[in-house]
Amino acid sequence: MASQQPVPRVGVAAIIRDAEGKMLVGVRKGSHGAGTLQFPGGHLEFGEDYFECAVRETLEETGLKVRAEKDVTFTNDIFEAENKHYITIFVSCKRLDEQQKPEIMEPLKCESWTWMSEAELREFMATEDGKKRLFLPIINLFNDRFKVPGSLTTDLLK
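The structure corresponding to this sequence follows.
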């Protein structure tokens, strides 16, 4: 019997902004990309709408209740060292209660949550070492889809 070839999977990333326009990011643990900054998100389940996935994953990971508002873009993410391939769909989400704070709901998967501006995230792109601090889908988001500084933030406001 022939071995099964790896297949691409679909990930969904929720871009959640605070009143200052900063985006919620967490430090990954225990999986590919450990130690890098990520948006809340996860795997799209069979038969699931990607807006539903963004809402579900955000609640599971942060305890935040959000409403998915807009599909932003997608990236093609090939993790060569891990032999993994993802298509990541980015979804803009809004907190239902702007005062609610994110919590670490999955301590084996996420070290911490913090709010960072697009400019702060892009600062990690300035050096080779910095690129290792952003999860590959975010690197590809900036390199392939939103090359101009401020363009992601501008798109989220539309």
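The chain has a mean pLDDT of 92.
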